[in-house]
Design the sequence.
């Protein structure tokens, strides 16, 4: 497979996942904002926006913190530009993806740029984000149904799970910046809402309830999001998928030195199970490892300019 | 216009002009091969047609069949306007076209071999040497280069127009990197999808073997001794206006779509950078102009090409299709000599005529043209896509003056032709059916043999009365049906 194609497939999937994630976070927070005191809403956005948007876009929505104008178009643009980027990547590798995949991502792009729908966003933001989330889910279904499990598939998987692991870590870091998870269950209502927001933003509230019942305990939530190996939204699950994809790639493309997960991260994730380790340290180790995998992936498979002709 | 009372109101605004009409042979009398379409047009209300037309437009958009228009501040992605009513060509008409094209391409290929080797045709004073050597697309570096199987032309898209007497004549030979074939294939797919009933009374010859045929011809012209060639399609990249077509063809042929930055040349061998290292490339179907192929040999500012590619090609280590330097044979001044080439190389009379052409470096012809700018069409010799041309009858005095200045500054750079009354075909326009001018671009594929695919791209000048069909100038297209015998 051409290096450029592998790179493009990887980014295509990353951008769809990122669009889905931003849509989910904004949607969930808009929803729960009705249950909060006005001042608390501003605090919430001030905390979340840096995690979601690049710095310039963040400056644009600064006024949203005080004005309570939660339906700022910048949030819409962040989602739409991720979808546009995913679609542009898909357009460049159309022969490597199924027609169905293309039509899903192109259809989502067209829908988000439809002027009527952009106007409706002011009225009913939830509908807008629902479009994004459904579009991403349909795209994912098309990926599963239509892609051969060859090299390209594994680059797509790496894009998805690196973005997911990094995204979950980012949201956790945001949350932990303000509150250290308490062991006992006594939480103020606002604080409970924060943790529910986090779980829902990670699409993991239902998974958490099935695992632990509805009782909210911050330490459990952090551990669950980091280490649960069976729930597909956790860091552990994503890292397992990444490790699997890397191992298979190393077999498919044998001339390359194999790339693996750093054992440090695996042990960090495992260590958080004991409850003894510092969750903030665990989260930054995860973020650093996602960055390292991305860079090494690039050097190993994409930009191997130094390779000589044999 | 219809005197025939039974005809529906749908034809109310249909007027017959001087041009040949593809559907009607006289007021109210349709040609026999249009009977099926005519009947359906009379039968169904316009709303049904409009709804099908909308369905077709949506299908183009969702499938991403778009092209980019340049000239605005940034390229705008558009769908190629499509008209649902097919253009029908009879089996007898096609037989003539097919024979004529095979003859013409054979002669052009021999001409290319000749001008880059012995130059017999110039020695015999049939084509002037100066004319050939002055061509912007003549590649000195190709002189004496042995091209695999002497096949210079692999893909050709010849533009035909129909004169008022019904004869098809050749307007242009596109011998460099002709585009548009994906629209030919997509148009057929979409008519099948949105209006299958249209086919009911017709036996339309299939065209969807085009990519497979192209692939097999590309295999045939692999470098000698290469039994299982690695074939790639080289695109200028995602910003090229025909990018959709490049991805489509690569996909249909099952070959890799590469950009210049994916390739490198080492020891006169071309390689692609892959996840598992470097992979040898044997045949390049390029959709990049000569000028941009290799920054070392041609334009050094090109970032689309591959350094060293031309040397690898000259050493016979890789096949490039179409060959480098074919532009010399589709120069619009050289075009005037194609009938003479056919007589010279094949000792035959041309089956398809040329359009009468004035060469402006001839003093007498130039004087005539400058006196008649208001009636003629003037084209730059080395351009394509309808850029830089003047359509006399539709021009302003200022435009004519500007053209006069340009001709006098560089007469060799322009040719003139009479303004042709291109034939007109029925199109769905604003709630009715109206005639619009059309041309026809069939695609010819060559390797060790020549295949003329039965069909082509019918391009439509969608503005009422306009004669310019180029997609870059607001033209659209139709599906083209060649009927079986």
Sequence:
């Amino acid at each position: 497979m051409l290096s450029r194609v592998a790179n493009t497939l990887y980014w295509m999937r990353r951008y769809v996942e990122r669009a889905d994630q931003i849509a989910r976070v904004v949607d969930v927070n808009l929803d729960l904002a009705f249950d909060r005191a006005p001042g608390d809403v501003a605090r919430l956005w001030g905390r979340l926006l840096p995690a979601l948007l690049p710095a310039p876009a963040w400056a644009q929505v600064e006024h949203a913190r005080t004005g309570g104008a939660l339906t700022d178009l910048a949030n819409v643009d962040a989602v739409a530009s991720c979808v546009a980027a995913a679609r542009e990547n898909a357009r460049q590798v159309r022969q490597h993806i199924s027609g169905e995949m293309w039509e899903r991502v192109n259809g989502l792009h067209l829908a988000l740029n439809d002027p009527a729908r952009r106007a409706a966003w002011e009225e009913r933001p939830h509908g807008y984000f629902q479009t994004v989330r459904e579009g991403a889910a349909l795209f994912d279904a098309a990926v599963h149904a239509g892609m051969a499990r060859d090299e390209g598939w594994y680059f797509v998987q790496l894009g998805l799970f690196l973005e997911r692991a990094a995204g979950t870590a980012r949201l956790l870091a945001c949350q932990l910046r303000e509150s250290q998870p308490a062991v006992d269950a006594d939480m103020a209502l606002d604080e409970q809402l924060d943790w529910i927001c986090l779980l829902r933003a990670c699409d993991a509230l239902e998974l958490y309830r099935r695992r632990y019942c509805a009782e909210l305990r911050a330490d459990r939530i952090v551990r669950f999001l980091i280490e649960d190996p069976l729930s597909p939204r956790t860091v552990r699950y994503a890292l397992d998928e990444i490790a699997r994809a890397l191992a298979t790639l190393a077999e498919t493309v044998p001339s390359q030195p194999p790339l693996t997960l750093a054992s440090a991260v695996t042990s960090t994730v495992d260590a958080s199970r004991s409850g003894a380790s510092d969750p903030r340290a665990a989260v930054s180790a995860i973020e650093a490892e996602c960055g390292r995998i991305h860079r090494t992936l690039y050097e190993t498979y994409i930009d191997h300019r130094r390779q000589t002709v044999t | 216009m219809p005197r025939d009372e039974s005809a529906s109101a749908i034809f109310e605004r249909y007027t017959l002009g001087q041009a040949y009409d593809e559907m009607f042979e006289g007021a109210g009398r349709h040609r026999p091969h249009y009977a099926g379409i005519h009947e359906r047009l009379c039968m169904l209300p316009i709303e049904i047609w409009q709804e099908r037309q909308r369905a077709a437009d949506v299908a183009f958009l969702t499938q991403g069949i778009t092209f980019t228009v340049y000239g605005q501040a940034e390229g705008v992605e558009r769908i190629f306007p499509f008209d649902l009513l097919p253009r029908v060509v009879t089996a007898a008409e096609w037989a003539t076209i097919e024979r004529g094209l095979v003859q013409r391409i054979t002669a052009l290929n021999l001409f290319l071999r000749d001008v880059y080797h012995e130059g017999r045709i110039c020695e015999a004073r049939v084509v002037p040497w100066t004319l050939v050597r002055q061509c912007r697309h003549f590649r000195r570096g190709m002189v004496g280069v042995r091209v695999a199987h002497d096949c210079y032309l692999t893909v050709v898209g010849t533009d035909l127009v129909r004169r008022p007497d019904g004869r098809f004549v050749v307007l242009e030979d596109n011998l460099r990197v002709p585009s548009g074939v994906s629209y030919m294939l997509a148009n057929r797919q979409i008519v099948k999808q949105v209006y299958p009933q249209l086919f009911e009374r017709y036996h339309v010859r299939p065209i969807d073997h085009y990519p497979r045929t192209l692939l097999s011809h590309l295999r045939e012209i692999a470098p000698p001794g290469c039994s299982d060639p690695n074939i790639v399609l080289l695109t200028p990249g995602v910003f090229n206006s025909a990018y959709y077509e490049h991805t489509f063809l690569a996909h249909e042929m099952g070959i890799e779509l590469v950009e210049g930055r994916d390739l490198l040349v080492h020891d006169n061998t071309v390689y692609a950078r892959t996840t598992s290292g470097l992979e040898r490339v044997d045949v390049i179907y390029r959709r990049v102009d000569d000028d941009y192929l290799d920054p070392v040999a041609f334009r050094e500012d090109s970032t689309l090409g591959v350094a060293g590619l031309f040397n690898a090609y000259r050493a016979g280590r890789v096949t490039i299709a179409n060959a480098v330097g074919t532009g010399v044979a589709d120069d619009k001044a050289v075009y005037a000599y194609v009938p003479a080439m056919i007589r010279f190389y094949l000792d035959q009379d041309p089956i398809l005529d040329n359009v009468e052409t004035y060469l402006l470096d001839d003093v007498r012809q130039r004087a005539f043209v400058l006196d008649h700018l208001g009636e003629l069409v003037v084209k730059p010799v080395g351009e394509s896509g309808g850029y830089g041309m003047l359509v006399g009858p539709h021009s302003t005095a200022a435009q004519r003056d500007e053209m006069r200045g340009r001709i006098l500054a560089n007469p060799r750079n322009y040719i003139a032709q009479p303004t042709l009354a291109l034939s007109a075909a029925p199109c769905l326009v604003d709630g009715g059916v109206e005639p619009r001018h059309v041309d026809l671009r069939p695609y010819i594929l060559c390797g060790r043999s020549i295949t003329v695919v039965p069909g082509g791209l019918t391009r439509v000048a969608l503005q009422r009365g306009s004669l310019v069909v180029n997609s870059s100038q607001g033209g659209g297209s139709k599906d083209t049906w060649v009927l079986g015998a």
